[in-house]
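From the thread on structure requests for the teaching lab: each student submitted one protein with a one-line request. Submission from student K.M.:

"Model DUF223 domain protein from Medicago truncatula, tokens only."
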Amino acid sequence: MELVLMDQKGDRISVFIRRTLIYKFKEQLQKGMMFRISSFDFACNSGSYRPLHNEYKLNFTINTKVKIFKSS
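Reply posted by the TA:
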């Protein structure tokens, strides 16, 4: 699964989630929601299909944590 995440400044980055980990994140990641994400890996963003042409991408791992961010 590949996603594009955007921060509050509008900067975007590609995210890759291995097929074996989709079950862990598919309910948590919803379009338009804000999240706090921790414990992920960075990798070079190479290959023939790239949603964004950034130099790097995020890879979710079994240790990645996703929590809905609630603003006050």
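TA comment: Residues 5 and 13 are 5 Å apart (CA to CA). The domain at 2-68 is CATH 2.40.50.140 (OB fold (Dihydrolipoamide Acetyltransferase, E2P)).
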